[in-house]
Amino acid sequence: MRRSVGPLLAVLVAALVVAAPLPASAHAALVGTDPRDGAVLDTAPASVTLEFNEPVTRSELVLTAPDGSRVPLEVSARDREVTGSVGADAEAQRGTYTIAFRVVSADGHPIAGTSEFETTSGRAVEQVDQAQDDESFLHRHAEHLWWAVGGGLVAVGLILWPLVRRRSEVDS
Questions:
Q1: pTM to 2 decimals?
Q2: pLDDT at 23 (0 to 100)
Q3: FRET pair for 48, CA 20 to 30 Å: which of 8, 25, 58, 97?
Q4: Contact status, residue 161 vs residue 14, Cβ threshold 8 Å
């Protein structure tokens, strides 16, 4: 009985590809905000700052006032910090403010989220519920889905390869 080294070699190559050390694909993470998430302040801050665990690019910040209106911000990013300076003409309101952010991490992955703080002074307004993250499941997990599809194709190839090989041996 003649044994072929091909199937064993294919399995070993597949195992090496899967087990080979790959570059880390860790994404940026929010490590702190100023004002901190959930803080209760006497007055509205002149600026909001978000700090990440690695440098970020293409920063977008939206500060939403308690009445649902957008507070004008001048956004600047430097290394791991993104700061939004509140415009001088912004009206202080009493209630919960929401900071919504979207940045791109060093590996190109977009990161989005929110943080909230509350003020106890300013004009009294009717509080409006803020919409949460509108990023879809597919958008958040696209990289994982590509890896799953690739792994499935490799598995199908490894299953079918011995059958094709056996058939060609029978035909010859």
A1: 0.60
A2: 47
A3: 25
A4: no
